[in-house]
Amino acid sequence: MEFREFDKSVHRYELDHSKPRRKLTCPQCGRDGCFTPYVDVTTGQIVGEQFGVCDHKNKCGYFKYPTGNELGSNDLFTDSNKVLRRYRPPVNPDIANCIPVNKMFETLNPFETSDLQDYLSNIFGSYHTNRAFNLYKVGMMRFGDWGKCCVFWQLDKNWVVRTGKIMDYGPDGKRVKVPMDHVCWVHILDGQDYLLRQCLFGEFLINFYPNDAPVYIVESEKTAVICNIVYPSRLFMACGGIHMLKREMIETLGRRRIVLYPDKGDAFNEWRKKVDKDMRGMNIEISDFLESKPNIDEGMDIADYFIIKQIYNNGKGS
Ligand SMILES: [Zn+2]
């Protein structure tokens, strides 16, 4: 897989690759059905009968690219948001977009913490909370009239920033879902044409842990960070949701031992089916730790368990 930074500005004119192919009569050799025209990617229209390339490279060789002069404007580039998507299919499906790494660092300000970080600091103490947020490079972003949101960056093992998930948590540490789900993506802010390939949240951390260290995979990014607060020596990653667990995400981790910690209830059964079906022969174990905990409701996860336990312990101490 190859990654390149997302470019908002694209060539306005490109050779027509709509299907079925439109092949016209070549203006030079006069043969029918051999001339591929240039199209304007913002409209899908052919630029002009003289602009294009002839299939008969040797016998004819006609080629004419539209330039600003001929078109009466210098508008040869356009914002990728204005491009009809069907005129910009991926050149190669193995090429995806990525985010410039400085965008990630801009969100990592030690003096501006997210509402979730503040909430967890009150429970687990700021020392342990800040350590885990720094380790996972969880950023803070103000987004519209939402609160101080977390940015969970998907940084892969080769230090490529795939995207960032922007999530708003209220003062109670729960996600804001009213009047709408407060979730957004950094790559969406840049444009809809972005070719996204997601990775596990925390994937880059395998560079810091020995090869024989198991990787613990949970559903949500918040859970991975909380688990690391409680067990700093263990490597937790998050797949981002019950349906987001993918074989290729696990394969990226090499031959490490994998332990899945699904949310209680539905996720446990779904992940077990998925492992049996798609991940046979891989070194994967599914923890049933939560299934046996009576004080944990369906849909709750291992972080909820740690938070309940910590609040209880904090109460005993005071
Ligand atoms: Zn020709």
Automatic annotation (TrEMBL):
Which positions fall inside the DUF6371 domain?
115-264
**Signal sequence region:** none
The Zinc beta-ribbon finger putative domain sits at 11-67
Entry's Pfam families? DUF6371 (PF19898), Zn_ribbon_16 (PF21957)
Q: Which InterPro entries match?
A: DUF6371, Zinc_ribbon_put
Name this protein carries in UniProt = DUF6371 domain-containing protein
Which species is listed as the source?
A: Vibrio olivae
